[in-house]
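RETRY 2/3 - previous attempt timed out on the joint model. Re-submitting the same 397-residue input unchanged.
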Amino acid sequence: MSATVNPPIVFTQDELGWVSWIEPLPETELTERHFAGLVDRSRAKSEYFRLLVRDPEVLEARTKTDKDIFYNVADGLPRAERELAAAATSRYNGCIYCASVHARFASTYSKRRDDVQRLLDEGVKADLGERWNAVVKASVSLAATPVAFGPDNIEELRRAGLDDAEIVDVINGASFFNWANRLMLSLGEPSK
Amino acid sequence: MSTPDIIDTLAGIKPGSALDAIRTKRLQARENAQKSYLSLFEPIDAGDVSLLERAAVAAFVTGLHGETPVASFYRDKLAATADGPRLVEAIELEIARGKTSGPYGSFPAGPLSVENTAGLIFRVSAERKSALGARLVAALEHAHLLVFRPRDAASDDMQALLAAGWSNTGIVTFSQLVAFLSFQVRVVSGLRTLAAVNASEEAAS
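RETRY 2/3 succeeded.
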């Protein structure tokens, strides 16, 4: 298995694979309890989800948290900027795999592929305009340990036009990727 | 709901407040962040990671983020866990030894290497290894990596956990626990900050 791994050495919007360092459950061993944890049955094809499904209750709750934070766009922050928060967090923490997925989504929903690529190439200090800069800076402040997010971040987000509900979407989206990045980075590796 | 919402409790969000209304718009996220907490700390099966291990790792991880309401919540939780009180001091001492600023670490060799940042590689103190035991020693060392330098993680780190007696399933649950807390600490911090800004504006108007 390791012979076929070809890890990327730069941040990219290309589609990447992901290879586990420990044993995922074989598809043949999945029970209904596991399928409940996967939420979408098609995720049984993914090595990552077949690994996380070793604890199905946590995976199910994690997946449903994720989906509501990013896909529930009835109100609040536009999807593109939720994805920007995810991509910026991943860029700052160093998760090349997560950054690739969410940079692609940010590009798709914003139609600003070049700006997204500058975030990946130049890093979180890239100048992407007032509104995106405020979202990136808030995400980075939240990702720091100890957490560096403060009233200045709220003020910047408001000045850029975000209301409190949208600010909560930034907080949720950026915080969630501190969860996702740590799993993706530590349980396996990306492969081109 | 039988257990009060843990994020609302730690962030000080009161029923009927503006932030309560905003969180209600993401009800599935709110309920499942709560279910994540419950499935990690009140699991239906604690066979691969004991309740004591979960509480000890949680106290360590949240303590590494600084003295916050979340850290004191999990320190109290460890003290209230069976056999936990004997570990509280050891965990506190290891938090003091492990505190630093992140994220740091190395990228894959190549153009990103200029962004590599050196920092503490945490190892549990020799004098506390017997009190903590081999499994928790390995867990705290890996948890420190996950908190501060997740991009340094390598397959050898998985081997170290397996060698210390962690199962594949135990590693998944333990990793989820550290990663979930990384989320929870930040959501609570963000919401508290927003609530505090709004409260000071109300007081001023």
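Chain B touches chain A through 68 residues (CB under 8 Å). Closing ticket.
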